[in-house]
Amino acid sequence: MGDTMERQPNQSCLFATASGQHGYFTSKQADSCGYSKALLASHARTGRLRRIRRGLYRLRDYPSSPNEDVTAAWLALGRDIAVVSHESALDLLDLSDIIPNAVHLMVPRSKRHLPDLPGVVVHTTTRPIESTDVVVREGIRLTSPTRTILDSAEAGTPPRAGRGRH
C-alpha cells in the first residue's frame, strides 16, 4: 500500500489527542489521525474546528480550562522542542504564589525561526533539557520542580510575591 491510498479521518483519534491537550491539536497530530490539511481547512471554514494559528487548531465545543493558554502556546512553539518553564512552570507545579504575566517556554538555544507569539516569553538554554528535567502535567511538558526552581532563580524570579497560598 502506497501513499496514494486515501486515509479516512479518525474522529476518535483526534478527540483523544485534543482531549489530552485542553482541546488543542496540531496539524501534524491531526495528520496522524487521518486529517489532511485540506480537510482541516474545510472544517475550520465551516466552523467545525477553530483555527488558532498556522498549524494549531482547537475543537470548537471543547470546554475552556484555566491553563489552555499555556497549552496553546506550548503547542504553537513545538511540543517536541519546547517545555513550559520559569514562572509558568512554578504556577503549574504549585511551587509559588506568583501569577505569571506571560506564558514562559524554554527551548534549546540552537532552535531557530520560532514563531513570534504574543504573550509568550521564550527562554533559550545551552544546558540540555534532559528527560529527568521534564514532567508532564495536564498533558503539557514542563520543567521538573528542581529544574524550574533553578531556572527561575537564575532568571531572578523572586521566591514569593504577595501573600502566600493558605
Explain this structure to me?
The protein is α+β, with helices and mostly antiparallel strands. Helices cover 33% and strands 20% of the residues. The protein is built from 6 helices and 8 strands; from the N terminus they run αβααββαβαββββα. A hairpin with a 2-residue loop joins β2 and β3 (56-59). The longest helix has 11 residues, at 68-78. The protein starts with 10 loop residues before the first helix and ends in an 11-residue tail after the last helix. The model is unreliable at 162-166 (pLDDT under 50).
Termini Cα gap: 60 Å
Please trace the helix and strand order, writing H or E for each element: HEHHEEHEHEEEEH
Number of helices: 6
State the shape.
elongated
Mean pLDDT: 89
| Number of distinct beta strands | 8
Main sheet makeup: 3 strands, antiparallel
Share of residues in helices: 25-40%
Q: Helix/strand/pairing class, anyone?
A: alpha+beta
Q: Strand percentage, roughly?
A: 15-25%
Count the domains.
2
Mind telling me the C-alpha Rg?
A: 18 Å
Q: Residue ranges: pLDDT <50 for 5 or more in a row?
A: 162-166
Strand order of the largest sheet: 1-3-2
Tell me the layout of helices and strands:
Layout: H1 11-19, E1 24-26, H2 27-32, H3 37-46, E2 49-53, E3 56-59, H4 68-78, E4 83-84, H5 86-92, E5 103-108, E6 120-125, E7 134-137, E8 140-143, H6 145-155
List its traits:
disordered C terminus; alpha+beta; elongated; 33% helix; single chain; 2 domains
Summarize the structure in short:
The protein has 2 domains: 49 residues, no CATH class; 88 residues, no CATH class. Helix 5 packs across helix 6. 33% of the residues lie in helices and 20% in strands.
